[in-house]
Amino acid sequence: MTSSCPTQFPPSSTLPAAASVPRVLSIAGTDPTGGAGTAADLKSITAAGGYGMSVVTALVAQNTHGVRDLHVPPAEFLAAQLRAVSDDVTLDAVKTGMLGTTEFIATVVAWLDDVRPAILVVDPVMIATSGDRLLQPEAEQAMVAFCRRATVVTPNIDELAVLTGSPRATTEDEALEQAARWSEETGVAVVVKTGHLDTLTVTNTWLSPDGSRIAVPSTRVDTTSTHGTGCSLSSALATRLGRGDSPADALAWATDWLHESITHGAALRVGSGHGPVDHGHRARRLQAAASSAPWIMPDAVPHLLETPADLGAPQAGDHGRNVTVPAPAVAPPGPWTAALWAAGAEITAAIADSDFVRALVDGSLPQHAFAFYLAQDALYLNGYARALAALAARSTDPDAQVYWSQAATGALTEEAELHRGWLGSADHTGAPPAPSPVTAAYTTFLLATALGEDRAVGVAAVLPCFWLYAQVGAALPAVPAGHPYSAWLDTYRDPGFVTATEQALAQLESEMAAASPAVRAAAARAFLTACRHELEFFDQALRLEPGGGAALLATETDRPELAGSAR
Ligand SMILES: Nc1ncnc2c1ncn2[C@@H]1O[C@H](COP(=O)(O)OP(=O)(O)OP(=O)(O)O)[C@@H](O)[C@H]1O
Ligand SMILES: Cc1ncc(COP(=O)(O)O)c(N)n1
After folding, report:
1. What are the C-alpha distances in Å from 33 to residues 25, 98, 196, 261, 263?
2. Of 76, 37, 36, 73, residue with least CA distance to 54
3. Fewer Cβ atoms within 10 A, N terminus or C terminus of the chain?
4. Which fold has domain 341-543?
């Protein structure tokens, strides 16, 4: 049935405004394997924090290898779907993907003439990664004209060539130049994507008609799981713009989220061709990070530790599965520290595998996450220094007194160097950084343990910071010239740090040997708890949204870059 029903309900504009969840409509074709088209759009809109809606243009029998068949319903049915949505729902953003034919483009144009959403993101889908046509050749010029209505268009390199009537760009500069000319002529912003160029860095650049540019670089992921990347980027972008983000924040969020989704796409094992990206990876990672499950279960450590063997096989962490114990970069000097290393194996392995360490090493860690990490590190070092000084005050052995007070001084010197160097160039006009919940929990735990528990327990609590940091440092590969974090990674390689770790290990070994079985058990718990704090400390920077957390819908005047959109 394609006849239109009379409007029976008030559109939702007459209902109370829908707070901070933007209502985003995707108009696109289908992919039954869920990687591209409507499925990718809805997953991306959800991941970006929106409420997704879907109007289907064409039913596409495709998989990760290519398109097998197409079924295109009558244009009246497309019009009916569009009206069914807009008669009822106020739209904060619309994204278009596969439109297929001149007739369908005209149908969407007629609907837009009526509806005029504030944000229209046009992904001018023409040819799939597989080489199959998703837009009839005779509809190309209609698509080119349609792009003039957009707030922003997101063509790939080949689509940009059709859009601008130019030969396919072979360099990023050429693509930017083509886009700049078209944008100036049409008054429409363009996101230039270099995914299809042979570059080590994939850069998404928002080009405004006035010539201004916002470039968001990311490292290229060596993967075949790139089916639907264009659909996903444009849907996430539409959602973040619909939510009120500036173009810079919206593009940074979408690029960063998509990079994580592409990185983890292959692990989904969906199909044997060009696989999909993992749209849900970020949500699952954040959900896991928000778990309130206890870190150390009551039976993880016996109440009395008579011998190192009582600590048993690796069992720390959430799952208690069998874990291979990684070789320690700084060797334990005796059986107690060896048993602690084995007990913490799951957490040590999780740090080595963490998205944060991987991104720091491959250079894909977003700048905002790195800056946050450094600021929290400086705050942490101050708290850590106080815990080390407390251990100095509580030591009676002269060597231990010297060692802990020097370690405290070392932490304060590092903090001062961070402020002088890495943090020195930061903007000093704003409020000074405040400790995050993770940093505050870790430093409070260290201070309380160093001051309030037996000394051996305090020593066990401060050890993971030395030992696990040295472990990460030893595993670092050489990084290529131009790596954004190479100078920072060099700080992990400081041989002085290995010596300090060896000394801290020797302190703990002798404290454990001399302690009562009950104190040893408390020390083992403190060690495992601190290992887990280390994992949280590394991971926390990737839980921060670029552009901050405010999720308020902005008015158009808040975003002059978008003025003139919603044609
Ligand atoms: N190998 C990769 N590594 C990192 N990011 C990538 C990679 N491939 C694609 N991207 C990201 O996906 C975005 C869109 O990719 P691309 O330029 O291939 O667009 P597209 O051809 O429109 O996508 P589609 O394959 O869905 O048609 C890029 O701008 C980039 O952010
Ligand atoms: C319905 C639909 N829309 C868009 C694409 C493009 O995605 P890709 O180029 O990654 O195949 C697709 N394959 N199917």
Report:
1. 20, 16, 23, 16, 19
2. 37
3. N
4. Heme Oxygenase; Chain A (1.20.910)
Q: Could you tell me if the CB of 229 is within 6 A of ligand 1?
A: yes
Specify the DSSP element, H or E, that contains 370: helix 367-394
* Candidates 186, 226, 263, 348; catalytic one: 226
Fold designation for 23-157+217-280: UDP-N-acetylmuramoyl-L-alanine:D-glutamate ligase (3.40.1190)
Is 5 annotated as catalytic?
Answer: no
Active site residue 95: no
Could you read off the pLDDT of 197-240 as tens digits, one per residue?
A: 888 889 999 999 999 999 999 999 999 999 999 999 999 999 99
Structural domain boundaries in the chain: 23-157+217-280, 341-543
Model pTM score? 0.88
CB atoms within 10 A of CB 152: 28
Rg over alpha carbons for the chain, rounded to the nearest Å, is 28
Quick check: do 23-157+217-280 and 341-543 share a fold? Answer: no
Residue 205 bears catalytic tag? no
Q: Decide if 531 is catalytic.
A: no
Q: Is 29 in the pocket of ligand 2 (CB under 6 A)?
A: yes
Residue nearest atom 31 in ligand 1 by C-alpha distance: 255
pLDDT, tens digit, for every residue of 350-402?
Answer: 999 999 999 999 888 988 899 999 999 999 999 999 999 999 999 999 999 99
Cα-to-centroid distance, 31 and ligand 2 (Å)? 8
64 lines ligand 1 (CB under 6 A): no
